[in-house]
């Protein structure tokens, strides 16, 4: 296996708990050499551990077509990760570390996207920090924003409960 192009290319990133059993199943099914540094995706027909770029591109293209999203690229997956990480409370430093960037400019300009609704809500909350809390208009605005957050969380919880019921 060749060395990565930069030191930041080789890094440790957290694995979400729900993903861990899927990775373990994949390893036991497809990775004969179950060492900690085993490549998760490798060529079963070649002695080489690394998949040729053409194989990766072809497999990714077939997956995109299967889900009806031929527009998705590896770059768009990175951009989505960066944006969602920040929206869920991740810091720019954590985002930069995940993407392997040392420059804030590259991380923001290349990968982070503006989500208009989130931006509007953030501005509303920021205004609340600077305006008098006894102003009824400000209080109503903050209540509306908080209720939207609660509604979003309830929908997420309901979706998770539905998945649990289907699994039972």
From TrEMBL:
Molecular function (Gene Ontology), one example: DNA binding
A Gene Ontology BP annotation from the UniProt entry: DNA recombination
Matching entries from Pfam families are given as: Phage_integrase (PF00589)
Keyword Iron-sulfur attributed: no
Domain Tyr recombinase: start-end pairs: 1-124
Q: Does the keyword Ion transport feature in the UniProt annotation?
A: no
Keyword terms: DNA recombination
Q: Which CDD domains does this one have? A: DNA_BRE_C
* Name listed for the protein in its UniProt record: Integrase
